[in-house]
Design a protein that fits this description.
Bound molecules: flavin-adenine dinucleotide
CATH architecture of the largest domain: 3-Layer(bba) Sandwich
Number of strands: 21
Shape: globular
CATH class of the largest domain: Alpha Beta
Radius of gyration: 22 Å
Strand content: 15-25%
CATH superfamily of the largest domain: FAD/NAD(P)-binding domain
CATH topology of the largest domain: FAD/NAD(P)-binding domain
Number of domains: 2
Number of helices: 12
């Protein structure tokens, strides 16, 4: 029988699987666990779902395709894209002119909020919003309750198993699982950024300006490429930015280049330019500092665009996001995914999600952005990266899984986080059979369930689904899609 109180806190619910954090990973985890037949409660600190995709306005979703144009993130993530497309909230997957990815998926954050809410409810996920996790109750190696602060006061939820999708590994950390932050040498993390959206852009004028100034753009796209691309993605203008800095017309502490993505609704672009260094996203004082400087930078960057770039004269900022945190804690799990795993396209016997985004590191000092191995390889993320030796009924999914600092530069993107969430939720729904001990899970069965659920893995059962229009010939690729067969899949 559920006790009415634990450690003096009222127990308001008793569920099989508790997912904490409703971002890309949490959505994938909650929906897949519910579809797997478990009773699932998803708890989120804000009043809506989406995590960075809606609170921080991070856009676009990266990245669903490898350089061959093969769709390697499928399942729930791809369902979200199709639902958004039906609602007019995305172009779908379009050519990325910025980072040598085969595709990018720009979306409208408001439609993302409603699509995620609908999909979670359709799957039977119960929701508790406005609830911030502040503690856990553990008995031996098991979590028994999770504590939340709410407007109704402090509450506890009893759960058989928990999936930590907080991005910061808040629960894992509180449960005593070792975590690391940032670079191995000094713990310094990637910079934070304030994303914002600009509306009322004159896209005809912008395209004309880009054609005239294509020498300022990455890879100098031809006028035909600029005309034909469905959604403009603009990267570059470093010389113009340098000039503006010398005149005091651009924030010298922001990224020294412009990165903009056209959005599907209105005449909008998302702006990925702000950059605030030396921020720890788990420190409230740093977060406050970053919110203030990030919002100031947004206006300084907007003023630069209005004065220096064609098409922005009558535009306006429609929304600034909450500070975007690229990196905080990573759990030290049963396996640590490495840079080599990512760059060599490694498969694992317990691989539960794929990733193919480049290793994207915005270094803590200097302004150079390092981009390695863009979509050349498709790698798997093993379930062992989601679990620890310390807690037997907890999985962690999303950007705080067990990786090196460098590998995290690839795994952290949103499409990959959704796939990780689906891997974790599918696995946890099967854990009833192991009395919720995640280490005893049958990984072959999990892979089979994932494939049956439409997910792609490096497995001979998964057929390539190639979009010839997205196939990238600019990049030296790893071979055709068949080369992604996982030689480790047969291992036990
Ligand atoms: C500046 C920046 C640019 C980026 N650019 C891109 C890009 O272009 N494309 C791309 O795909 N990815 C990009 N990313 C990466 C991506 O946005 C994140 O890594 C990804 O959103 C992580 O997903 P997640 O579900 O693990 O965590 P999050 O998106 O952070 O979601 C975590 C959720 O948990 C909730 N939560 C946190 N703590 C608690 C708590 N204690 N109690 C209750 N709820 C809690 C949060 O409110 C949130 O909803 C970028 C990130 C940043 C910061």
């Amino acid at each position: 029988m559920t006790p009415n109180k634990v450690q003096g806190t009222p127990v308001v619910a008793n569920v099989e699987i508790l997912v904490v954090g409703g971002g890309p990973a949490g959505i994938g985890a909650a929906i897949s666990a519910a579809r797997g037949g478990a009773e699932v409660l998803l708890v989120e600190r804000y009043g809506f779902l989406g995590g960075n995709s809606t609170t921080a306005l991070i856009n676009p979703l990266f990245t669903f395709h490898d350089v061959q144009g093969n769709l390697v993130i499928r399942g729930i993530a791809e369902e979200i894209v199709q639902r958004l497309k039906e609602a007019g909230g995305t172009y779908g997957h379009v050519r990325d002119l910025t980072f040598d990815n085969a595709s990018m998926t720009p979306f409208d954050p408001e439609l993302m909020k409603i699509v995620l809410l609908e999909m979670a409810q359709e799957a039977g996920v119960k929701l508790l919003l406005h609830s911030f996790c502040t503690g856990i109750v553990k008995k031996e190696d098991r979590l028994t309750h999770v504590i939340f602060e709410t407007k109704s006061g402090r509450i506890a939820v009893a759960a058989q198993a928990v999936i930590d999708c907080t991005g910061d590994a808040d629960l894992a950390y509180k449960a005593g699982i070792p975590t690391l932050k940032g670079r191995p040498e000094d713990g310094v993390m990637q910079p934070a950024s304030t994303f914002f959206r600009i509306d009322n852009i004159d896209f005809a004028a912008l395209r004309a300006w880009m054609k005239e100034n294509n020498h300022l753009l990455k890879d100098q796209p031809t006028p035909t490429e600029i005309d034909e691309v469905e959604a403009i993605a603009l990267l570059g203008l470093t010389d113009l930015v340098a000039q503006a800095i010398s005149k005091g017309d651009y924030p010298a502490d922001a990224a020294p280049r412009i990165l903009l993505y056209q959005l599907p609704i209105g005449n909008q672009m998302a702006v990925n330019v702000s950059r605030i260094q030396q921020i720890d996203g788990t420190d409230v004082f740093d977060l406050t500092k970053a919110e203030i400087r990030g919002r100031e930078q947004a206006w300084e960057i907007y003023n630069f665009l209005s004065n220096y770039v064609g098409g922005f004269a009558n535009s306006y900022i429609v929304e600034t996001g909450q500070i975007g945190i690229r990196e905080t804690r990573r759990i030290q799990g049963k396996y640590v995914l490495t840079e080599e795993d990512v760059l060599t396209g490694k498969g694992f016997h317990d691989g539960v999600a794929c990733g193919t985004f480049a290793i994207d590191i915005h270094p803590p000092e200097g302004q150079r952005q390092v981009f390695t191995g863009s979509g050349r390889e498709v790698y798997e993320i093993p379930l062992r990266c989601f679990m620890s030796d310390e807690v037997e009924n907890l999985l962690v999914a999303g950007r705080c899984i067990s990786t090196t600092h460098i590998a995290n530069g690839s795994t952290r993107v949103m499409a990959t986080c959704m796939a990780m969430g689906q891997g974790a939720g599918t696995a946890m729904a099967l854990a009833r059979a192991t009395n919720w001990r995640v280490a005893d899970l049958d990984v072959k069965l999990i892979r089979t369930k994932l494939i049956e659920g439409g997910q792609y893995l490096l497995d001979s059962r998964c057929m390539a689904d190639i979009d010839q229009d997205l196939k990238l010939d600019r990049v030296d690729s790893s071979g055709d899609a068949a080369a992604h067969y996982n030689p480790f899949a047969a291992e036990g």
